[in-house]
Amino acid sequence: MALLEVNGISKSYQANIQVLRNIEFSVNAGEFVSIIGPSGAGKSTLLRCLNRLVEVNSGEILFNGLDVTKLKRKELRQLRTNIGMVFQHYNLVPRLTVIENVLHGRFGYKSTLAGMLGHFTEEEKEKAFSLLKQMGIEEHAYKRCDQLSGGQQQRVGICRALIQNPKLILCDEPIASLDPNASKVIMDHLRSITTDLGITCLVNLHQVEVAQDNSDRIIGLNKGEVIFDGKPIRLDRTMIEHVYGMESRELITV
Ligand SMILES: Nc1ncnc2c1ncn2[C@@H]1O[C@H](COP(=O)(O)OP(=O)(O)O)[C@@H](O)[C@H]1O
Ligand SMILES: [Mg+2]
């Protein structure tokens, strides 16, 4: 059984403008899958539908066999502990320390009050440190997040997602705000989350080559439709042009 099965979901924010059209795909446990496509294709919307930050208009989303679109509030909270998220702009709390931001990933497991009072167990704190160490930023644990570089902040974002013990990590353009060196570091870390920890990753990416270099499988989205779903090797020039439409010339020559 697939970890994630998306069956014919559609979404429109406004009447008559369909942002996602009858999207179908599935992701197996342990896969690293990239979603590519031009801006406006619906990549962010699709990712946000998967953990109900955005509600679909129709279709079903099965996570471990459970239909995400039908979950009540408590079950939804549980689902969100199983699905970590990494954002383009990191979504950290800038004036809090690195370690505090990582521990925020545990909120889904706590009562609101315990979370607000910052009641975390020794085990949680040790886990937070060991994740920071894995990402090579443990020496920054007590700095305010806004003192870190973009690449370092994104590593904090990854630690915050990992401390949830997620089965799936969704990343929305995780390297779009980073320089090439920092991007490489982040992609290597994400890749090893799947390879070494066995956690499934679904990553929105604008850059084709990055997707090709890192993915087990690529899904190509254009105007809200899946028009490619296959191994990177099958994504040839013609298919890339098909996915990116008018934008492709720009992408290929740059
Ligand atoms: N909250 C929203 N309300 C209305 N329209 C939206 C909203 N979010 C995205 N859209 C529209 O949906 C389309 C797809 O956007 P998005 O999912 O952000 O695509 P991508 O991430 O591929 O750039 C765009 O036309 C965008 O303007
Ligand atoms: Mg987007």
UniProtKB/TrEMBL annotation:
Keyword Membrane: yes
One Pfam family of this chain: ABC_tran
An annotated GO cellular component: membrane
Keyword Transmembrane helix part of the UniProt annotation: no
Domain ABC transporter stretches: 4-248
Keywords: ATP-binding, Cell membrane, Membrane, Nucleotide-binding, Phosphonate transport, Translocase, Transport
Molecular function GO terms recorded: ABC-type phosphonate transporter activity; ATP binding; ATP hydrolysis activity
Official protein name in the record: Phosphonate ABC transporter ATP-binding protein
Organism of origin: Alkalihalobacillus alcalophilus ATCC 27647 = CGMCC 1.3604
